Amino acid sequence: MLLRITRRFAPLAAGLGLASLGLMSQASRSMSFEEYDPVSTLVVPEHPVSRAKYPVIDIHSHHNPRSSAKRVAQVVKDMDALNLRTLVNLSGGQGENIKIGMEQLVKAHPGRFILFANLDFWGIDEPGWGEAAAAQLHEDYRNGARGLKIFKNLGLNLRDKKGRVPTDDPRLDPVWRKCAELKIPVLIHTGEPAPFFEPIDKNNERWLELTLHPNRARPSDKYPSWKEVMAEPHRVIERHPNTIFISAHMAWLANDLKSLGALLDRFPNMYTEIGAVIAELGRQPRQAREFLIRYQDRVLFGKDSWVPGEYSTYFRTLETADEYFPYHKKYHAFWRMYGLDLPDEVLKKIYYKNALKIVPGLDASQFPQ
């Protein structure tokens, strides 16, 4: 979709006489906001980072467990170039998919992949669904899964006979208890960024993204409020203190680190990860640096979508003190980024040490102490 700026700027151009002077080319009159990408004239030191300073465990990645050997080999090659030691594949599925993923990923490339299982919500209205789901998870654990990933359909679009299934639905309690019993973490993606729930107007910070991808909007006539959706997993975390929860995408609070810190202080069994929210950290370098140092034992490295070329933005933001460098997706962040220049010990914890603490199956001997 092209978001034409012609109508918006034509009156200004006419008033300045630019069109009559031929100073506005046809290309500039029809250029979309998404295409507009001015080259900064700012001259500052630059230190692009194409390879992480320390080996990385990426806690948030997605790969088809039935991927071909050729594709998996290419992923491993890209991992080597980036210094990604281990990818946690959150799309492990369950049952037969776990077995296949173990063969295609974990056993074929020892030390490079970990599988998390997923839930099948079919039949959630039936008596005993929670116990059956917990039993399936136990079987998936025996077959090699080392964590559980909850997708955002829970709490948003998943419905039963009565309507939307909230994240804190008690029918899932047997699953959370099973995770505690097995000592495996739950990486839970709940909700969306708060602007997705707000009117799509000139005041919405994610207007461009929502205009390009209107299906991401969560209007109030179809969804509960953002606060309600996000409060539900917090009740789960509180109700199950023996289960480790990793709140995906910094619980959509990377733009409100004080509130995220309050949650981490309140729930000792809660961790978080930085997948898809590095742009939020990069626009508040002083506060984000202070936050990550303070909560250095609770934050893990995550990326989400598998686009090897985008990892450099994460590494540069975490490792350098660079100023005013671009993010890799304009519709996520139309601002420039600033490096956090994290201390080495904090980098090590985010890159791999924190994951080693809470994810079974990882080989600590592959990482520096």
Can you tell me about this structure?
- The chain has 369 residues and is of the alpha/beta class.
- It folds into 2 domains: 1-36, no CATH class; 44-366, TIM Barrel (Alpha-Beta Barrel), CATH 3.20.20.
- It has helices at residues 6-16, 26-30, 69-82, 96-107, 129-142, 173-182, 207-212, 226-239, 257-266, 278-282, 285-294, 311-319, 344-358; strands at 56-61, 84-89, 113-115, 148-150, 159-160, 163-164, 186-188, 245-247, 270-273, 299-300.
- A 5-stranded parallel sheet has the order 4-7-8-9-10. Strands 1-2-3 form a 3-stranded parallel sheet. A two-stranded antiparallel sheet has the order 5-6.
- Helix 5 runs parallel beside helix 6.
- It starts with 5 loop residues before the first helix and ends in an 11-residue tail after the last helix.
Structural class of the secondary elements? alpha/beta
Counting structural domains, the number is 2
Overall mean confidence score, pLDDT = 93
Strand arrangement, major sheet = 4-7-8-9-10
Model regions low in confidence, pLDDT < 50 over at least 5 residues? 1-21
Would you count the extended β strands for me? 10
Quickly give the CATH architecture of the largest domain.
Alpha-Beta Barrel
Measured between the Cα atoms of the first and last residue, the distance is: 49 Å
List keywords for this structure.
2 domains, single chain, disordered N terminus, alpha/beta, TIM Barrel, 9% strand
SSE map:
Elements: H1 6-16, H2 26-30, E1 56-61, H3 69-82, E2 84-89, H4 96-107, E3 113-115, H5 129-142, E4 148-150, E5 159-160, E6 163-164, H6 173-182, E7 186-188, H7 207-212, H8 226-239, E8 245-247, H9 257-266, E9 270-273, H10 278-282, H11 285-294, E10 299-300, H12 311-319, H13 344-358
Parallel strand pairs: 1-2, 2-3, 4-7, 7-8, 8-9, 9-10
Antiparallel strand pairs: 5-6
Helix pairs in contact: 5-6
